[in-house]
Design brief:
The chain has 559 residues and is α+β, with helices and mostly antiparallel strands. 33% of the residues lie in helices and 21% in strands. The chain contains 16 helices and 19 strands. The strands form three sheets. An eight-stranded mixed beta sheet has the order 5-4-3-6-2-1-7-8, with helices on one face. A hairpin with a 5-residue loop joins strand 4 and strand 5. The longest helix has 24 residues. The radius of gyration is 34 Å and the shape is elongated. The two termini are 66 Å apart. It binds adenosine-5'-diphosphate and magnesium ion. The site of magnesium ion has 6 residues, from helix 2. It comes from Paenibacillus endophyticus. Pfam families: HATPase_c_3, HSP90. Homodimer.
């Protein structure tokens, strides 16, 4: 039996594709500029193997020109251009990628910069244009051709005039409708910001004619309009630069430009990994908590670039929740993108990168804690709570990563200490790591329960945050030392002698205690004599795992 080829209603297919694979219209510019950059790259690779061809970097650029009157947006490149046949193949066949073929033919693997691979990006132009005209001249050819299409109805190709090799794409920008705005794609500032957002690190200049006003020479208070060609993109991404060439200001400036935050980050990490996964990253540990940080509105994530082109604004898979405060970007050549290039196809590489980043952040934080204590405490003030949530969440799966990053106020040191510092100061007869919970340090200090432990000369950690005690319950033990609330029944320090005395006392005042229990009824479980009190007449204590403070919080929690 002969096999039949599928037929496709190409008109419908094109419409479906254009309107369904992209979530944002503005990416058409990213796609066209990426194609232009690929076209220049191809000439560059040709020059590497062809001695006749000299590649002068100055001659290669992309130009974007908007004309409101004719409603056209023109994207020109000085790249390799297309022959008639290539026009047919690459722009006439949906999902055919000349760039992908080029990579294969030339066996380009690592380190290549060519972006195209799916053969659909070009058609995204029809999201904003009703007519697209491509005039192109292949490098080394005398003939130029014009391809024109309104999208759904197919295309025409005819001979054209073009002086130099390269491609010019003219988009007739659609008219505004009630629901859809297209005028913005003719606005200089809007185009600039789209280019900055997605294509800032394209390696060739993206030029625009920028209009401005300046004081007129020789005349006071008079201004004249002027137009000037400017390069809009920064070209060399800061993360590809050598660390030695970069100053603290460069990193701070990048943080500011990218609007990661308006504070001055506590620390930056510049990672160039080339092990199991190859990626570059610049990460920041901020100083201040964003106003919405501890709300549901806050979105964690890092910017994700593939070969210098922005793919995702906030890739949340790159950061665990407990490090959700980290800002920055990751660029990798190793990602397998899905067709819209807005998502990833496989997350294996992403998982590897995330794991790698996670351990780098952890060691960076430990480093700050060790060498720049003051800075760490500033950071901790804002984000310590998140670390403690991290210990508590996921049934303590991450406590090992996080417990050494915790700080608590110490009764002895009168400042924040780590668990490690606490344990290293413990005396031999001290069995537990003691803590006391309360609203504030002052209130905890006045708790009758803290007196006895302090009198023994033992250090107490003061828990003033709701989450503290929950987190510590999950940690359970640090360096084999268990945690113990000062208000728990058995403190592990009452001497036998005292226990006996307590029992006698209990007998002696039995009736009084029974009467007290009758009056208090369900408010308490029992009334007992205690040897724990010194300057206070009574104290409340708990039996079992849940302390008074935790009970209060549990009661306040919404069901
Ligand atoms: P992709 O970039 O993923 O290959 P596109 O739909 O964006 O897919 O482009 C299809 C093909 O058209 C490209 O692979 C390339 O061969 C060709 N092409 C597109 N734009 C240009 C250009 N400006 N110069 C030369 N060739 C181009
Ligand atoms: Mg493309």
């Amino acid at each position: 039996m002969s096999k039949k080829q599928f037929k496709a209603e190409s008109k419908r297919l094109l419409e479906m594709m254009i309107n369904s694979i992209y979530t944002q219209r503005e990416i058409f510019l990213r796609e066209l500029i990426s194609n232009a950059s690929d076209a220049i790259d191809k000439l560059y690779y040709k020059a590497l193997t062809d001695e006749q061809l000299v590649f002068n970097k100055e001659d290669y650029y992309v130009k974007v020109v908007a004309d409101k009157e004719s409603r056209t947006l023109t994207i020109t490149d000085t790249g390799i251009g297309m022959s008639k046949e290539e026009l047919e193949n690459n722009l006439g066949v949906i999902a055919k990628s000349g760039s992908f073929a080029f990579k294969k033919e030339n066996e380009l693997k690592d380190g290549h910069n060519i972006i195209g691979q799916f053969g659909v990006g070009f058609y995204s132009a029809f999201m904003v244009a009703d007519v697209v005209t491509v005039t192109t001249k292949a490098f080394g050819s005398d003939e130029a051709f014009k391809w024109e299409s309104t999208g759904a109805d197919g295309y025409t190709i005819e001979p054209a005039e073009k002086a130099t090799a390269g491609t010019e794409i003219v988009l007739n920008i659609k008219e505004n409708t009630e629901d859809d705005q297209y005028d913005e794609y003719l606005e200089e500032y809007r185009l600039r910001s789209i280019i900055k957002k997605y294509s800032d690190f394209i390696r060739y200049p993206i030029k625009m004619d920028v209009k401005g006003q300046r004081p007129k020479e020789g005349a006071d208070n008079e201004f004249e309009e002027y137009q000037e060609e400017q390069t809009v993109n920064s070209m060399v991404p800061i993360w590809r630069k050598n660390k030695n060439e970069l100053t603290q200001e460069d990193y701070d400036q990048f943080y500011f430009e990218k609007r990661y935050g308006f504070d001055k980050p506590v620390k930056h990490l510049h990672i160039s990994a080339d092990g199991a996964v190859v990626y570059n990253a610049i990460l920041y540990i901020p100083e201040n908590t964003p106003f919405d940080y501890y709300t549901k509105e806050y979105e964690k994530g890092l910017e994700l670039y593939s070969n210098g082109v922005l793919i995702m604004d906030k890739c949340s898979d790159l950061l665990p929740d407990y490090f959700s405060f980290v800002k920055g970007m990751v660029d990798s050549e190793d990602l397998s993108l899905n067709i819209s290039r807005e998502m990833l196809q496989h997350d294996r590489q992403l998982k590897l990168i995330a794991k790698n980043i996670n351990s780098k952040i952890k060691s960076a934080l430990l480093g700050i804690l060790k060498d720049e204590r003051e800075k760490y405490e500033t950071f901790y003030k804002g984000f310590g709570r998140q670390l403690k949530f991290g210990v508590y969440n996921d049934y303590g799966a991450n406590k090992d990563v996080l417990q050494d990053l915790l700080l608590f106020h110490s009764s002895k040191e009168k400042k924040l200490v780590t668990l490690d510092e606490y344990v290293s100061r413990m005396s031999e007869d001290q069995k537990y790591i003691y803590y006391a919970s309360g609203e504030s340090i002052e209130r905890i200090e006045r708790l009758p329960q803290t007196e006895m432990v302090s009198d023994k000369g033992f250090e107490i950690l003061y828990f003033t945050d709701d989450i503290d005690e929950f987190a510590i319950k999950v940690v359970a033990k640090y360096k084999d030392k268990e945690f113990k609330s000062v208000s728990s029944g058995d403190l592990g320090i009452e001497a036998d002698e005292k226990d006996k005395e307590t029992a006698e006392e209990q007998e002696l005042h039995k009736e009084l205690f029974e009467q007290m229990k009758d009056i208090l009824q369900d408010k308490v479980k029992a009334v007992k004599a205690s040897k724990r009190l010194k300057s206070h007449p009574v104290c409340l204590s708990t039996e079992g795992e849940v302390t008074i403070e935790m009970e209060k919080i549990l009661k306040a929690m919404p069901n």
